[in-house]
């Protein structure tokens, strides 16, 4: 099998799959309050998603991340996760993981572990119940905490993802680091990205460069750069006082595209070769055209030849429109 290598010599070994564009929350930086979601008939069935993901595994993808929208609100998603787990058993896949808001984790944590999931990313931007409700528009922090507790009981390693929001959670980094340290969670801080219309708010108001965040954190904590890699774009440090890892994802202040190893699939079977560009390939048509994977594999290989060098995200007052029109929930964070 010839591996998937893009025009800039980057091997493609990581697939992120948005299994649904729907979500039970409406985080202010991610979605508008009155989002229009895809009609169900446009969304691939779970069997089709399994076939698509498995084709990528056959082409050398070693890591699969299910995301969304909220992956755990898709009906019967555990069926898909269990099915994909067979690639862990054969050794074809190194890791099957997901990014979740944790609202449904209480119900699913044990099954996730049984299906072979060992690490999950949980998005949590604040430890203050009122702020949590404000950021997510109606979420309940207690539900997320119950989900996290269930995940810990099930033996899942947890990384918290926090989007730095100016004037919203920028007074909480120290508390979050201490809380993650005492619970044994890693933490990654993310810059807000200009993706999709979010209604009245603007990203210029939300955006906080992580260079500032890091400087703020370094006043209280001792950070040592480390080589740790998860196959994602974060750069990691070790916090001496807690022993925990702290990652920074800085798409705006430090472009990480040179080491990009991933492509992203939407729940309609559209493949995006870059989170921050519009070019895409339709994999649904070749998937449905025949029962064998010949057309599908050819379409995947062709798409990878179009993977661009990188994104062009900018957030400033002159550039108030999103860099790409689709929301993060379409291609998955
Ligand atoms: N619903 C799940 C969750 O929240 O973890 C998975 C999907 S969500 C789109 C994935 C990640 O994208 C979350 O960590 C979220 O905070 C992040 N995200 C969403 N919109 C973003 C934006 N405009 N800029 C930066 N991160 C964003
Ligand atoms: Fe939903 Fe995740 Fe977007 Fe929040 S960040 S609205 S939880 S998809």
Describe this structure in words.
By secondary structure, the chain is α/β, with parallel strands linked by helices. It has one domain (14-331): TIM Barrel, CATH 3.20.20.70. Helix content is 31%, strand content 17%. The protein is built from twelve helices and twelve strands. The protein has helices at residues 46-58, 77-84, 86-90, 105-114, 129-136, 141-154, 173-183, 203-206, 210-218, 284-289, 294-304, 328-331; strands at 14-18, 63-67, 95-100, 119-123, 157-163, 186-190, 223-225, 235-239, 245-249, 262-265, 270-272, 280-282. The structure holds S-adenosylmethionine and iron/sulfur cluster.
Report the CATH architecture: Alpha-Beta Barrel
Total domain modules:
1
- CATH homologous superfamily assignment: Aldolase class I
Uncertain stretches of 5 or more adjacent residues: none
CATH domain topology: TIM Barrel
Strand order of the largest sheet: 7-8-9-6-5-4-3-2-1-10-11-12
**Helical region count?**
12
Secondary-structure element string: EHEHHEHEHHEHEHHEEEEEEHHH
Overall radius of gyration? 19 Å
Q: How many angstroms separate the termini? A: 29 Å
**What's the overall average pLDDT, rounded?**
90
Helical content, roughly?
25-40%
* Highest CATH level, the class: Alpha Beta
Small-molecule binders: S-adenosylmethionine, iron/sulfur cluster
Shape category: globular
For the largest beta-sheet, the strand count, sense and barrel status come to: 12 strands, mixed
